């Protein structure tokens, strides 16, 4: 655990690292935080695996994001569900992530994003 953070604070910080990409979470960070059998149902409708996200990482620009309404539910000592709203580069979505505790650290096993609107003018 990161210092004396609560589980929710720790998972929120790990989730934020994944959202920021770039220097905040380079490839080594992504490899550590994504479980080997990770899968994501993206807001775009794309199904991502750990390998496809790592391959895409080199061409992904740093993103501006804002998280809100973060909630955390501890399922058991080894797993937790994190849900939140996020705006990334003006695009709003609902997110949910299933985190599992490995021998070394927390890893994201599953993630889903659902688009809820855009901040661009109508």
Automatic annotation (TrEMBL):
Q: Which residues form the DUF4440 domain?
A: 12-108
- Which ranges does the record mark as transmembrane? none
The domain of life is: Bacteria
* InterPro entries assigned: DUF4440 (IPR027843), NTF2-like_dom_sf (IPR032710)
Q: What is this protein called?
A: DUF4440 domain-containing protein
Recorded source organism is Terriglobus roseus
């Amino acid at each position: 655990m990161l210092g004396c953070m609560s589980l929710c604070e720790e998972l929120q910080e790990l989730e934020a690292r994944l959202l920021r990409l770039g220097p905040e979470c380079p490839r080594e960070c992504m490899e550590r935080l994504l479980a080997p059998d990770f899968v994501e149902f993206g807001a775009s409708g794309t199904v991502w695996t750990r390998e496809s996200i790592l391959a895409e990482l080199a061409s992904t620009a740093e993103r501006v994001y804002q998280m809100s309404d973060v909630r955390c539910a501890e399922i058991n000592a080894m797993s937790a569900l994190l849900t939140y709203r996020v705006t990334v580069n003006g695009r709003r979505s609902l997110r949910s992530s299933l985190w599992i505790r490995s021998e070394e650290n927390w890893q994201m096993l599953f993630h889903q994003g659902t688009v809820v609107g855009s901040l661009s003018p109508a």
